[in-house]
Design goal:
Blueprint lengths: L1 E10 L13 E7 L4 E6 L12 E5 L14 E6 L1 H31 L3
Parallel strand pairs: 3-5
Antiparallel strand pairs: 1-2, 1-4, 2-3, 4-5
Length: about 110
């Protein structure tokens, strides 16, 4: 399973103001469902990821774990129309879900028994 996110910040060990124990790069992401997460960026694309990019994150479960734990790794950078279309589609699904949940909640609250 993969989820899209929008890069809010890139945390690189070469950036001023960052001291790092390793050479890995992380990205703080605003996910399509309004969560904010910081994930590892795959080494092959670590130097190419930028603020504002739409990225695809690997949420598949880690193998060998007793409880499913997502990998949480940025594996692709999407550009142009493909990025816009992906982001818009997921956001529309999220907005529809929120509207439906809001209506259900209102219906439950308005019931007088």
């Amino acid at each position: 399973m993969y989820h899209p996110g929008k890069v809010v910040a890139v945390l690189s060990p070469s950036d001023k103001g960052i001291m790092s124990a390793d050479a890995s790069v992380q990205a703080t992401l605003h996910m399509w469902d309004e969560n904010v997460l910081t994930m590892l960026v795959a080494p092959k694309i670590a130097k190419k990821v930028r603020e504002g990019d739409i990225v695809l994150c690997d949420y598949r479960p880690e193998s060998g774990m007793s409880v499913p734990v997502p990998r949480n790794v940025v594996v692709k950078i999407l550009k142009g129309k493909q990025a816009d279309k992906m982001w818009q589609e997921y956001r529309e699904v999220h907005e529809k879900r929120n509207k439906r949940e809001s209506k259900e909640k209102q219906a439950q609250q308005s019931y007088i028994g």
